[in-house]
Amino acid sequence: MCAIRTLSTLGVWLFLLMPVYAGVDSVCCAGVDRDQPRIFRDDLDGAGLSEAISTSLGYYRRQPDSRIYRFCDREYTAAELAAGLTDFLAFSRQKFAPGQFGKEFRDRFELCAASAPGEEGGVLVTAYFEPLLEGSLKQEPPFIYPLYAKPADLVKRDGRPGRLSEEGFVQYWSRADIENDGVLAGNELVFLDDPIEAFILHVQGSGRIRLRDGTVRRIQFAAKNGLPYRSVGRLLVEQGRMELNAVTLPAIVDYLKARPLETKSILQHNQSFIFFRWGNSRDDGPLGSLGVPLTAGRSVALDQECFPPGGLGFLQTRKPIFNRENDIVGWAPLHRFVVNQDSGSAIKGAGRLDLFLGAGERARKTAGIMKHPGKLYFLVGKK
């Protein structure tokens, strides 16, 4: 029995390139092997952990206490998972002597390693961020590239998005239909000044818009047209325009900006299209698929059919090192507690993890190049 499936933000690199990268098995609900991390130290020194756990507790309080989640080869109720998070939150706030934390942790909690078949407990770790873009509520140069609200004629039948026509229920308009033929004229929510940045916002699923009067408003995922995602990165590789090992978000952006006459046709290769709504700018972070604000550095997107929504894990991978000029000069170990609070169309199976980094230039740079193998361990209270 797997958890309920939801949808929200997506990892930049993984979304742009998938399915070029074929190094991780994407079978869902893969076996979960018991294991222990070699390093048991949080590289964020606890920052944001209480906040992230508290938002997950809010999610569990909205679920029936008897709702069942299966992982780590066992079944847990929502009430049991909430109790485990509450217990860990109190435990993490205690003061420990050097080396004492790991010992006492193992006495009270249990870890199991998320494992895709054949990956020996590994996951592919990518990252995503919340962009800040310039926009206008009126279409006036250079703000001519619209983001659309969810259209009234977008309906679902048997869980599949589409629209009603004289021929009956048919697939919804594609990206090319919407951008070339004006089929959604009058449904514009806001206008941006860069088509590439608009596309990246579709990838992220949420962001912030700074309007002409200086106000900043958060924009959230509302719906999608239901057409299949087609990878822009894969297209460029298959056509011989880019080498696979050179494909990153910055490289794709540079390629497109150098060829403005080709940009529209390249981006329209992806038929999938996202619709938006205004969010609450007072939220501490964008909302993930659980309906709770995401916490930078702590919230992760996983396949919710494989792992428990709101569940607490321990992640090991690598992170970039920046110099004073905000350039990446190397990589260092990343090891921290994370919380499963989001999902995404490209995050499928037990071998995928997308780490939310928050906003800002460093978050954008990291998200554009982060694609490392890692280890993910889920935490449960001992029964």
Quick structural overview:
24% of the residues lie in helices and 30% in strands.
Can you walk me through this structure?
With 383 residues, this protein is α+β, with helices and mostly antiparallel strands. It has two domains: 12-128 and 288-381, RlpA-like domain (Barwin-like endoglucanases); 132-231 and 270-278, Ribosomal Protein L25, Chain P, CATH 2.40.240. The chain has ten helices and 19 strands. The chain has helices spanning 12-17, 49-61, 78-92, 100-108, 175-181, 195-204, 232-238, 249-257, 260-267, 361-369; strands at 32-34, 68-71, 74-77, 109-114, 122-128, 132-136, 145-148, 155-157, 160-165, 168-170, 188-192, 207-210, 216-224, 274-278, 299-301, 312-322, 328-342, 352-356, 371-381. The strands form four sheets. Strands 5-18-15-17-16-19 form a six-stranded mixed β-barrel. A six-stranded mixed beta sheet has the order 7-11-6-12-13-14, covered by helices on one side. The chain has a three-stranded antiparallel beta sheet with strand order 8-9-10, with no helix packed on it. A hairpin with a 2-residue loop joins strand 8 and strand 9. The model is unreliable at 1-27 (pLDDT under 50).
Count the beta strands: 19
CATH topology of the largest domain: Barwin-like endoglucanases
For the record, the count of structural domains works out to 2
Largest beta sheet: strand ordering = 5-18-15-17-16-19
CATH architecture of the largest domain: Beta Barrel
- Sheet-strand content, in percent, reads 25-35%
Low-confidence stretches: 1-27
The helix tally amounts to 10
Describe the main β-sheet briefly.
6 strands, mixed, barrel
User: What does the overall shape look like?
Assistant: globular
Question: What's the SSE pattern?
Answer: HEHEEHHEEEEEEEHEHEEHHHEEEEEHE
The CATH homologous superfamily of the largest domain corresponds to: RlpA-like domain
Share in helix = 10-25%
Distance between the termini: 20 Å
What structural class is derived from the secondary structure elements? alpha+beta
Mean pLDDT: 86
Alpha carbon gyration radius: 21 Å
CATH top level of the largest domain is Mainly Beta
